[in-house]
Amino acid sequence: MKVAVVRETAPNERRVALVPEAIGKLTAAGHEILVQAGAGIGAAIPDADLSAAGARVVAEAVLYSEADVVLRVQKPTPEEIGKLHAGQVVMGLLQPLIDPQNAQALARARVTAISLDTLPRTLSRAQTMDALSSQANVAGYKAVIMAADAFGRYFPLLTTAAGTAKPANVLILGVGVAGLQAIATARRLGALVKAYDVRAETKEQAESLGAQFLKLESVADATGTGGYARELTDDERKAQQQELDKHIGSMDVVITTAQVPGRRPPLLVTAAAVRSMKAGSVIVDMAASALGGNVELSVPDDTIVTENGATIIAPTNLPATMPGGASGFYARNLSALLTHFIKDGKMLFDFDDEITAGTVITHDGKVVHPATAELLAPAQRGEA
Ligand code: NAD
Q1: Does 260 sit in the ligand 1 pocket, CB within 6 Å?
Q2: For 70-91, what is the mean pLDDT?
Q3: Cβ(333)–Cβ(307) under 8 Å?
Q4: Residue located nearest, by CA, to atom 35 of ligand 1
């Protein structure tokens, strides 16, 4: 099979869908790998390294005309969808639940679209394919590094002849994949770490990494389905904010990672809480997006300093800021999912299989992924 890797075009995207190690494995399995010239540049992987791993470096036009499967990180733009042809397969983080119109355009082009961000994450056989987890892991690590960089003092307790530096007080809000990595990273740097989440099971997980779990009186366990949190009621939300406000003022660094699937991120750090922080404190809002984030004052993809001297950093694509590490993990996830579909040298779609049903978004000119189809009118799904 001919498997192709495009050069990403989304602003600030520096990751690449396959790295030399993954190319070597797919080539050894008998596939031909085509890579668009310059695809690895953002991740500091020169074309020569991709060729040395067994890939053929080609121009964009050759790639689209020859490929059976096109691999990418971000969803294709309308222009890129125009370059795909009927029967081709495209795989990536396509965000069909955020942008169902893009899925509709792929269905119209009779392209089979496979998305890693709708993978059923609780199946143990799907763990190697879980790009949301691998990228959240990168993001949790990088958020702490950014916070430490922006913080004008030490994270660890340091005793020197010139005096003693106190350890930083760090609060992690949201103890999912990113939050757990943030706790571990802040602890490795020597900070005193507190953590909080609405899912009761996270207490033990946070404590096992050396964090002190913050227990709020106002919110009962809010575990939802599939390992995620449920959305809080209005009353719970207000009570949670008020109680959190009291803790935030005494923190040097706050890192927020809280998400609820399909909903806008919960507001956890109010403007009043930020005003209560000391000058020099740092907040990283990892949930920042055009829809809003966990921090009332955060501005997506910008860093602001408030009147009372708190710095608020709101990166929307942290994995892309660590492109080598993030691409290495992503390439593993993508290769595992691609291999799942290949039978006797061809892509085979068995919709009774949970991984196939969860990740194949469009097929045979239709939007076949139920949750995506629900977001579109019948005519748009390709059914009318
Ligand atoms: P996520 O990105 O959806 O959310 C991050 C965290 O924010 C979650 O822990 C959530 O509980 C928390 N949160 C939501 N609302 C909140 C609020 N109002 N206040 C405080 N915290 C709030 O989650 P994720 O990291 O993608 O995954 C969540 C969990 O799913 C993980 O902890 C993991 O255990 C589980 N998971 C399981 C598997 C598996 O079983 N193989 C794979 C991946 C993830």
Answers
A1: yes
A2: 98
A3: no
A4: 227
Other C-beta atoms closer than 10 Å to the C-beta of 132 total: 18
Reported pTM: 0.95
> 132 alpha carbon to ligand 1 midpoint, in Å?
11
Whose CA is closest to atom 28 on ligand 1? 176
Query: Rounded CA gap, 178 and 175, in Å?
Result: 7
19 φψ region: left (φ > 0), alpha (ψ -120 to 50), beta (else): beta
How far apart are the C-alpha atoms of 274 and 241, rounded to whole Å? 12
Atom 16 in ligand 1: which residue has the minimum CA distance? 258
Task: Report which ligand 1 atom has the smallest distance to the Cα of 121.
Answer: 42
CB-ligand 1 contact for 182 (6 Å cutoff)? no
Cβ of 122 less than 6 Å from ligand 1? yes
**Helix (H), strand (E) at residue 148:** helix 131-150
Active site residue ranges: 121, 127, 130, 133, 228
What is the whole-number distance in angstroms between the Cα of residue 295 and the centre of ligand 1? 18
Q: Which of 357, 312, 307, 327 is nearest to 135 (CA)?
A: 327
> Ligand 1 pocket, 199 CB below 6 A?
yes
Tens-place pLDDT, residues 222-270: 888 878 888 899 999 999 999 999 999 999 999 999 988 778 899 999 9
Ligand 1 touching residue 247 (CB < 6 A): no
In the chain, the amino acid numbered 19 is V
Task: Locate the DSSP E strands across the chain.
Answer: 2-5, 32-36, 56-58, 69-74, 89-93, 112-115, 158-160, 163-165, 169-173, 192-196, 212-213, 253-256, 282-285, 303-305, 311-313, 342-343, 346-347, 360-363, 366-367
Which tokens belong to 177?
A: 């994949």
> What is the 176 CA–ligand 1 centroid distance (Å)?
4
**Which of 93, 71, 88 lies closest to 19, judged by CA?**
71
Neighbouring C-alpha atoms within 13 Å toward the C-beta of 106 = 32
Q: Which two tokens stand for residue 369?
A: 């992924």
Single-letter residue type at 8: E
